[in-house]
Prior knowledge:
Blueprint: E1 10-20, H1 26-36, E2 40-46, E3 49-57, H2 58-70, E4 77-86, E5 94-96, H3 117-124, H4 167-174, E6 195-199, H5 213-222, E7 227-230, E8 235-240, H6 244-254, E9 262-264, H7 268-274, E10 275-276, H8 279-286, E11 292-297, E12 313-317, H9 322-331, E13 335-339, H10 351-358, E14 364-368, E15 380-384, E16 387-392, E17 402-414, E18 424-433, H11 443-459, E19 466-470, H12 476-488, E20 492-495, H13 497-508, E21 515-525, E22 531-539, E23 544-550, E24 553-554, H14 560-563, H15 566-577, H16 579-588, H17 593-603, E25 610-611, H18 614-624, H19 636-646, E26 661-665, E27 670-674, H20 676-687, H21 692-718, E28 722-726, H22 733-745, E29 749-752, H23 763-776
Parallel strand pairs: 2-5, 7-14, 9-12, 11-15, 17-19, 19-20, 21-28, 23-27, 28-29
Antiparallel strand pairs: 1-3, 1-4, 2-3, 6-14, 7-8, 8-13, 9-13, 10-11, 11-12, 15-16, 17-18, 21-22, 22-23, 24-25, 26-27
Helix pairs in contact: 5-9, 13-23, 15-16, 15-17, 15-18, 15-20, 16-17, 18-19, 19-21, 20-21, 21-22
Amino acid sequence: MSAGVPANPLTRARFRVSGTVQGVGFRPFVYRVATALGLAGHVLNDSSGVLVEVEGPADQVAALQRVLLEDAPPLARVTAVDAERLSPAGLRGFRIVESHDAGTADAPVSVDTTTCPECLAEVDDPSDRRYGYAFTNCTNCGPRYTIVLGVPYDRPATTMAGFTMCSRCQAEYDDPADRRFHAQPNACPACGPQLSWRTTHEDPSDATLEASPLAAAVAAILDGCIVAMKGLGGYHLVADATNTAAVAELRRRKARDDKPFAIMVPSLDAAEALCDLDAPAIEALTSIRRPIVLAQRRAGTGVADAVAPGLPELGLMLPYTPLHHLLMRGTARPLVMTSGNLSDEPIAHDDVDANARLGPLVDGLLQHDRPIHIRSDDSVVRAQPHRVQVLRRSRGYAPEPMRLPFRSSHAVLGVGAELKSTISVARADWVVASHHIGDLEHLATYRSFLQAVEHLPRLYGVEPRLVVHDMHPEYLSTKWAIDWAAQRDVPLLAVQHHHAHVAACMIEHGRTAPVLGIAYDGLGYGADGSMWGGELLIADLATSRRVGHLRPVRMPGGTAAIREPWRMGAVWAAAAKGRDAAERGCDERGVDAVKAAAVLDLAEHRLSPVTTSAGRLFDAVATLLGGRQVVTYEAQAAIELEALARSVPRSRATRYEGCVAFDYCEPEGRWTIDPAPLIAAMLDDVDDGVGRHLISAGFHEAFGAATAEAAAAVAAAEHVATIALTGGVFQNSRLTEIVEDGLATMGFEVLVHAAVPPNDGGISVGQAAIGAFTAALG
C-alpha cells in the first residue's frame, strides 16, 4: 500500500432505494444502522422512494449498502439500491430530514397489514396506555393503502391528517429509536380515532354514544343480532356463525340466497377445529396479509349449514386489526364476517353511505371516525395441491407492484373487464393492480371504478400515454377508456379478452416468449364477434393467434343461459343425443316441457349467440347431473359440480377414456375439442343409476385429460414447450391438477396462476403488460 493512503479511506455516497419503502419504518431503520456503523449523513422520503446520503469509512458505507438491499424491515419490498459516489464533504452526525415531493411519484405504497405482535401485546396489557385501544399500530403494521391520499407517504397525505397527536404520541413519532417513529397512523385513546355505537331502532339524530361501543356490539351479536362494523377497508356485516337463525336472517336481509359467507375465527387452533388445513393454507391464513382462505370443512363443528350451503369448504380468516381481536375475544366464537353491502353491490366504506345502505339491514352499527379513502374487500385465496392461488386480490395484496420481465418507455393504464373489475398501471419495469372493484354493471361499483382510475395512476405518478381495454364494445370499462382517451388525445389499444388472461399468467412467471395458452372461462368477446371461452391460443405479449377451441354451441337466451344453466344442459344434451333425448331430460329434471321446447327452438336459431365457453359447459354438466337448474350467484352450478368430484379419489372416478373428440378443421386451420360424446356417455350412466359424484369425477378426469392431450398435440405442432393455464374455470383445483399433471408428465413446462387471479380480476394486469410490451417494441 502506498505511503499516506489510509487503509479505509473516507467515502461519501448517495443511495436511491426503490420499492415499497415508505410507511414501513425504513427511515428509522436506516438511521439505526447508519449510526451503529458510525456514518454521517441523512435519509429522507421523496416521491421516488427513499434517498440516503452517507459519509464515512469505505467499508462501513459498503456495509450499509448491503444491509439496505438484504436486511430491510419486514414490510419493505426493496427492488433496487442505486449508488452514486460523491466527493467527501465533512458531514457530521446522521439525521432524518423532512420529506419533499419534488418530481414524479414513483414510490409504491405499502399494503395494509395485520397487527404486529408488539402492538397486540400493548392492546392486551392492562398497564399499557393503549390497553383495549382498537386503533393501535406502528411502522410495522396497520393501515396504509386504505388511508393514503398521495405520496410522499406522510401524515398530511393520509386520512389521519385530522387527528392531532398528543404529546406522548408525538414524542414516539419524533424518536428515531422508537418503533413508531414516523408511523403516520400513530394514535392512542387520548388523541386518535374513537369507536361509536348506535342501534338502528332510533333516529340517528337522537343516537347517543354508548359508554362501551365494543361491549354493546358484542352483546348484540351474542343476542343473535346482525351488526355492521366499520373495519380497515370498509364495513363488514357480522353475525354469530353458530346461530342458525341469525345466519338465515342475514341471508334474507342481504338478499344473498346461497353464496357462501366468510368466517372470522380468533386463532389458528379455532381454524383447525373447523377445517382441515395443510401447510400452505396455514401459511396463508397466518401471514401478514390475512386473506380469507378456502379450506375443506370438518363435520360436526357447530357452524350453521347456511354459512356455506351445499359446499364442502369454508372461507376462514383470522383477525387482522385490534378491533377484530377485541371483538373476537368478546364473543369467543366464529363470526360471519361478510362484506357490508347488498348482494353484488360494492362494500360500503363511507359512513353516510353505510348508514343509508346498511342501516336497514342491521340491528346496530359499530363505527369509528377514521375515514377510509379507498375501499378494499378482504382478499380470497385457495390452497391447492402445489400452491396457494389468489382468487380475489385486494386487502393485504394490493397495491403491491409486480416486476415486468422487460422495460417500457410508456406509462400504461389497463382498465380491466366488466366483472371482477380491477385496473392496473404499468411503467418502466413494473405493473401494479388495484384492489378488487367488483362488477361494473352496478352504478355504485362503476363509481368506485371511476375513483380507482383517478387515484391509482396519481398515487404511482402514472400519466397514461396508452390506455388498454377489452375488445367487448359494451363493457363500461371499454366505453370509459374510449371517452377518456378521446378527451386527452391518448392512443388506445383493444386487447382480446383471452389474450389478456394468458398475458397475466405469463407476467406472473416473468415470461415474454410465446406460449400455448389454455384459456377456459365464462365468456369473452372474440376476435370474430362470437363469445369465446374455451380457447387454445399461441400468444406472447404482443400478439395472439387462435389455434383451437371447444366445439361451438348456441347460447339460447344469451345471458339468461348463465342464470338458468338448464338451458345449456339442454343444448349440450341435444348435441350429444339428439333433441328428443334433450326434451326428455328436461322433463325428468322438472323443466316445463313448453319452455324446454321453446329454448331448444331458440338454440337452433341463428340469432342465439354462439359460444365456445368452458364455463357454460361445466354449468351444463352440473345441471345434467341433477344439480341446480337456476343459480343465485356466478358459477354456482360449476362450483357445486367440482364439490361432487372432490368427494371421490381420482383413482375411483368413472372412466370415460376416448370419449372426447379432438379434430383438426382444415378450412378454419384450428383444432376443435368436442365433449359431446363424453356427455352422451355420462347421460347413459345417469340413466343406469351411477352416482352423481362418480360421474362428476369422471367428467373432470376425461375432460382434463383430453385438454392436456389436445394441448400437447397443438404445442408440438407449433413448436412451443410452455403451456399456460388461465381463466376462471382454472379456479377449479380438480381440473387444474389433472391438466397440469398430464402436461408435466408429457414433458411440458406448465404455468399456473398463484399471485394473479386466473379469473377476470387478472385481466387488467394482462392488458397493462401487453400495452407496456407493445410500447417497448416501439
